[in-house]
Amino acid sequence: MTAIVPRPGEPAPAARAMRGREREWDTVLGLLKAAETGRPRVLLVEGEQGTGKSLLIEEAARAAAARGLTLVSGRARELSLTPAEPLLSALGEPPPADASQRPWIVERMGSNLERRAGAGPVLVCLDDLHWADHATLAAVQALSGGLGRHPVAWLLTRRVTGRGDVAGRLFDLMEHDGAERCPLGPLGDDALIEIAIDMLGAMPDPGLVALAAGAGGNPYLLTELLAGLRDEGAVRISGGRARLSSARLPERVRAGVDHRLDGLSPRARHLLTVSAVLGRSFAPQDAADVLGVPPATIVPGLDEALAAGVLADTPDAIHFRHELIWRVIVGSVPAPVRQALHRQIGELLITRQDAIASAVSHLVHGVRAGDGRALARLDQVIAAVLPRSPPSAAKLAMHALELTGAAEPDRTERTLTAVRALSAAGRTDEAARLARAAFSRPMPALSCARLRCLLSEILYLRGDLEEAAEEASEALAEPCLPGGLRDDAELALLASRTGIGAGVRDRAEAIVSTADDHGDALVTGAFVALALAAWEAGRLGKGLALAGEAVRHAVSAEARRVRPRLVLAMLLTDAQRHGAARSVLASAGDDLLGHPAWAGAPAILSARAHLAAGRFRDAATEAEAGLAAGSGPGPQLLASSGSSVLAAATLRTGDVNAAHQIADGTERRASAYAQAGFALVAAQVNEAREGARSLAETFGPLCAEVLRHRWTLVADPAAAAWLVRTARALGDRPSAERTVAAVELLAKDNPDFPAAHAAAAHARGLLDGSPGSLEHAAGAHTGPWPRASATEDLALLLVTYGDAGARRRTVATFDAALAAYEAMGATRDAARVRRRLRRLGVRRRHWTHTDRPVSGWASLTDTERAVSELVAQGLTNRQVADQLFMSAHTVAFHLRHVFRKLEIGSRVELTRLILQRSA
Fold first, then answer.
1. How far is CA 858 from CA 545, 681, 861, in A?
2. For 549, how many CA atoms within 13 A lie in the half-sphere containing its CB?
3. Phi and psi dihedrals of 294, rounded to 5?
């Protein structure tokens, strides 16, 4: 680093020149002070080339002279032939006339130093000892240790080369004997900015700081860069800010790097060129492979570059020490050569799964427009990469498309490839835009049909089912489609139309009946469509059988992409056969490949199993994970399922407002099949939040919708009971009767499905006021929450009997429901049962005894926390009371306790505390 001349009123040269070296400079001043007080020390300064060792020693010499110390200064030179030349020259001693005089040289130099020290403190500065000969180093060791009684301080510097050297071993020995080591590491960001201000006279903007950071904190490289930018007019200063006007590296930086590399052999320079194109960091094996030699062959060149400080090594790779040096080397490679190397490296790395991303980056830089041969090879690479890494294939495909002119014959095929790759990578919006834009240009009819099939699949995945069906129909309208392409179009149409009418069933049955005329992917899709149609119609056994047939027909990879195992697992989950669903899902690995839209399916199906088992928090966690995975679940079968589970689990745990936000914020783009279950949950949330009357206008259509999709009455065995209960609250007996008739028909048609029979008994018991039916339902339900719900409904019915025996049984039944709700963490339901018990004159504690502190959040009971969280959401005491099934006076009572325990005095402070805890 060069010294900087200060402006008036600014710090002294040493302080300014040593930006970022304040700690090291204090160490030097401590060395001088020790010499002045007769306590000589040895300071060992080391760092890589350009870190300011020479500047530090120059500033130390000036400071020593200013303090009146005698200065003895020398520097080792590369290739010096005189033994101990730096010390001899510094002390004014003649070199030995012949080898016989060498043993006396150390004694003579020692006498010289003693004589000088007799007149006052002495500072010996020896620079660049990495070039010193053995005689110099031996003399330094002997003299620095043998003059301990004299006021002689030593300041020694060496360059760290990255490999062991004699000077390094000397420093180790001297440190062991008490010398102080002072490494000069990279400058920090603050020093970088200070130096930029010093040299440019303005604060550097972020772009300039980022470029300067490429010096890696090396003072020489940094000052050369800034001086070059300034001198070549690449920096524009306005408003006190220094901004880059050109990102081109200054000529003096390139010249400085070239000079630094001049000492390397041609072999090492060649290795650095190839390695630089590999990247800032590279594996030696990759460099050897590009050069076409065994790794052992490049070791000498690597050693040279490491010793010169150009490269550094880690346990895993070799890297260029400084980004600027790397950029200069890369920039020195002629563009055609660099392009060819990128292509060679990309094709070398693309075969390795762990290096695909790096390979893609090289291939992108290795192909140019108009290079038909290279683009054709890139097409082959994309086809090979797509199954292994869709995101990488998408990046390559888009690059190939950008390099292909609008009139070139390969444009259409590369468009199809790019659309397919973007979709497979989960970038469905981009894929749809690209496909639609392509229709505006002329293309062969068959290519147009293929593109429409791809677009139909993309629209299906996005939930745009009507548009998906239109695109598939357009493709099928093209005459003379080849068999495989017609199958693709038929499959796209089946997927987008599944579950919406007899036309789809007829089409699927026709395909199944002529299975030998179609590929197994279309036949698998037809069985899936028939399975879902049977499920919609309430023929559960047939639906499972057809889904099983779909799995058996899915032999090829294309057929497995129809994901029949996921369909079967979903239907088994609907039927409350969770163990069987898990087994099927465990074998569905291949079904999950090919598109990130399905990545969340396992978590969502797991969430549904947790919900059915009464593990609400686990259900919510899995649902959130499923919704966050990839691009979200496939819309036809699993869209809304994740949100349904999340809203239902949140409702069960008592957070009605959060459940409402989930339900209200879910986009309604799924098919009628997926949407029916979600609509039911959304209505349950609204009823819990605002009461049954809030559903007065929508309940009839909702009830009709659910009954059209009778599978929902099995997927949620308590759904039919809720519909009957809500219909009664609204005075809508016809809807209640239709619900009971539908669920009883479902049970009759499906004798092997206990969940349907339990749901039918529960609904019938509510409609008729039949204790026997409700008692049967409470025992027949397989899930804990429907069992507790039926038990609560039975207790409510028993209340109306009025006699003493019935009362005891009523209380016992309520208690059973209460215990079940509390065991599941269904706090809202438990609160409702406690309120009903209070009306019977029975009070049940709604907290558990724990050793709580007397104040702070941990001191709050569960009820106090529930009250606090609802208040923090902005609810009034009356609204909180409605949510927790208690009186407004009780809410106020709990709030007083909360304020006392948290040592606050207002709802605002409570809200702030809860927000802080959430954060």
1. 53, 33, 8
2. 18
3. -65, 150
What would the two tokens of residue 252 be?
């003096």
Q: What is the dihedral of CA 480, 482, 484, 490, to 10 degrees?
A: 0
Spatial separation of the C-alpha atoms in residues 694 and 709, rounded to whole Å: 23
Of the candidates 183, 250, 186, 267, the residue with the CA atom closest to the CA atom of residue 219: 186
Tokens of 39: 């306590």
For the record, the structure tokens of 786 come out as 């429907």
Q: Torsions phi, psi of 164, nearest 5?
A: -60, 140
Per-residue CA distances from 333 to 214, 298, 330 (Å): 19, 20, 6
Count of other CB atoms within 10 angstroms of residue 542: 17
Asked whether the CA dihedral 404, 405, 409, 414 is positive or negative, the reply is positive
**Which of 576, 591, 651 lies closest to 619, judged by CA?**
651
Instruction: Name all contacts of 565-572 with Cβ < 8 Å and 24+ positions apart.
Output: 565/591, 566/591, 566/592, 566/598, 566/601, 566/637, 566/638, 567/528, 567/531, 567/532, 567/637, 568/531, 568/544, 569/605, 570/605, 570/637, 570/638, 571/531, 571/535, 571/540, 571/543, 571/544, 571/547, 572/544
Instruction: Say if residues 490 and 511 touch (Cβ distance below 8 Å).
Output: yes
Q: What is the pLDDT of residue 497?
A: 76
Q: What is the largest CA-CA distance in the chain?
A: 129
The bridge status of strand 122-127 relative to strand 70-75 is: parallel
* Spatial separation of the C-alpha atoms in residues 830 and 766, rounded to whole Å: 20
The answer to whether residues 730 and 693 touch, using CB atoms and an 8 Å cutoff, is yes
DSSP label at 125?
E
| Phi then psi dihedrals of residue 37, to 5 deg | -95, 15
Distance linking the first and last C-alpha atoms of the chain: 47
- The Cα–Cα gap between 620 and 651 comes to 10
Question: What is the rounded distance in angstroms from the CA atom of residue 226 to the CA atom of residue 205?
Answer: 13
Strands 311-313 and 318-320: antiparallel
Pairing of strands 203-204, 241-244: parallel
pLDDT in tens, 297-323: 999 999 999 988 899 888 889 999 999
How far is it, in rounded angstroms, from Cα 521 to Cα 900? 67
**Alpha-carbon torsion (753, 755, 761, 764), positive or negative:** negative
Segments in the chain below pLDDT 50? 1-16, 632-637, 847-850
Q: What is the pLDDT of residue 65?
A: 93
Task: Quote the tokens at residue 737.
Answer: 């009767």
Both structure tokens of 915: 């927000």
Reported as type and span, the H/E element at residue 33 is helix 22-36
Query: Residue 274 has which token pair?
Result: 């190839």
Q: Residue 286, Cα to own-chain centre: how many angstroms? A: 28
Q: Is the whole-model pTM more than 0.70?
A: no
Q: 545 phi and psi, to 5 degrees?
A: -65, -45
d(CA 127, CA 76): 6
Tokens encoding 237: 């200063």
Q: How far is CA 298 from the centre of its chain?
A: 37
User: Do 546 and 534 contact (CB within 8 A), yes or no?
Assistant: yes
Tokens of 918: 């959430």
Give me the residue label for tokens 């074998």.
587
Residue the block writes with tokens 């080391």: 46
The conformational region for residue 156 under phi > 0 = left, psi -120 to 50 = alpha, else beta, is beta
Residue 579 CB contacts under 8 Å (≥ 6 apart), including other chains: none
Q: Which residues, 6+ apart, have CB-to-CB distance to 254 below 8 Å?
A: 328, 331, 332
Alpha-carbon distance of 770 to 763, in angstroms, equals: 10
